[in-house]
Amino acid sequence: MALIVVSNREPYAPRSRDDGGLDWVPSIGGLTAALDPALQHTGGTWIAWGEAHPDVREVQLPQDNPRYRLQRLRLSEAEVRDFYHGFSNRALWPMSHYFIERTRYDVVAWQTYVTVNRRFAEAAVAAYRNGDTIWVHDYQLALVPRMIREMLPDAPIGFFWHIPWPSTEVFRTLPWDRELLDGMLGADLIGMHTTDYVRYFQAACRRALDADTDEGVVHWQGRTSRVVARPIGIEVDVFEDLASRPDVEDEADRIRRTLQTLILLGVDRLDYTKGIPERLEAFDAYLDRHPDARGRITLIQIAVPSREQVDSYRQLRARVEGLVGRINGKHTHSGWSPIQYIYRGVSREELVAHYRAADVMLVTPLRDGLNLVAKEFTACSRDGALILSRFAGAADEMKEAVQVNPYSPGGLAEALQMALNMPLEEKKARLQRLRSRLHASDLRTWAEDFVKEIADQ
Ligand code: ADP
Ligand code: G6P
């Protein structure tokens, strides 16, 4: 029995070396960060879009210690534009994150979404052998479970929706609401991060499809799908090991020595859902209100470029860069600047060194399916404080974080004041309680249990 994972984003992307060979570099984002270790553990096949070097159709990964096979689909330029940038990231992503004003519901984009979903489904069916389990992922591929079901009526199929499931009135703005739900309900088991998302999903099934629902199930056209809240975890051991490595510790010390101030940290894909401008503005307001903090605090914002073909993302980049310039211009004096802005992906080691160096971690999305950064920081921190938006799915499990409403003008600055003044003992106690829960829901257990649950349906 093997596992077949199907997702749009591939876990590693090929990059050309000077000698003509290829290096396979980890992709950045919650889905691949979570599933790569899971598939490394179980082995099997991962089917995904091969963005760079599309001629490479298959590769064993990870490169230095192969554990599974990546099968890469080639998408045409028009498919990338209409399926990925278009329907996935201009319709489903903003709608699911409550940004209706940013949605573009375009018929051609929808039709391409259907066509490309079919290509993924056909690839999964071709890879499938009796006894295998198929696990499809995320909003880019919501129709795939139904399409596979039509070709393989008895295959065990699971689906995980990694982003928020919005309340029904928002979901109903999607002109293809019925088709999307019907696509997902081809799966035996549908997973989401929180019980609220599950509730809203079931409400959408009742409202849009007139389907029957019971506790944790949806009945639709003679079949029953289970719908469960299974918040994803992180590889706690891997992060803890990295955090205790002397070279990482040295790097954390170097960051602190260089700045000689308290450190606030933000780590995000550059996405308008992450609340980065709001965070920068709150820090600016904090500095206005607390002149004594000038020269004593630095905000390090690490932002990795994302989906740059989509206008909302380009506008966000310009806005963030403008804000960093304006705030630094306003407050910088005698060698101190309030914001250090790093616009790139950083290595795991560098990331963990920053988590270790930080006094306060700012995870303040306006809306987020879960948010892994909050969990990674918790695993790695020396004795820092975590500020966490109430609109991140992770807030349900992380009650000991300082929770904030990122829409509240004074809220973030107040939370910052509280986190900066929190006694050491309290910070340690909060971290300890958060950590014990991280261990209880480790990534490996999450993935293994989900795969077992699919097969048990
Ligand atoms: P999303 O799924 O929306 O990208 P998550 O917080 O759930 O958000 O996951 C993001 C993942 O990407 C985390 O594992 C995080 O460590 C990683 N990441 C985010 N920004 C960077 C960056 N600038 N450099 C390296 N890794 C990053
Ligand atoms: C989020 C989504 C994933 C996606 C990731 C990175 O985590 O849930 O499906 O892979 O963002 O975005 P990208 O568009 O680069 O794949």
UniProtKB/TrEMBL annotation:
Cellular component, GO, one term: cytosol
Protein keywords: Transferase
A molecular-function term among this protein's GO annotations: trehalose-phosphatase activity
KW Transferase (keyword) present: yes
GO biological process: trehalose biosynthetic process
InterPro entries assigned: Glyco_trans_20
Listed SUPFAM superfamilies: UDP-Glycosyltransferase/glycogen phosphorylase (SSF53756)
Pfam annotation, one family: Glyco_transf_20
Xref: CDD domains: GT20_TPS
Signal peptide from the UniProt entry: none
Recorded family membership: Belongs to the glycosyltransferase 20 family.
Name of the protein: Putative Alpha,alpha-trehalose-phosphate synthase (UDP-forming) (Trehalose 6-phosphate synthase) (UDP-glucose-glucosephosphate glucosyltransferase)
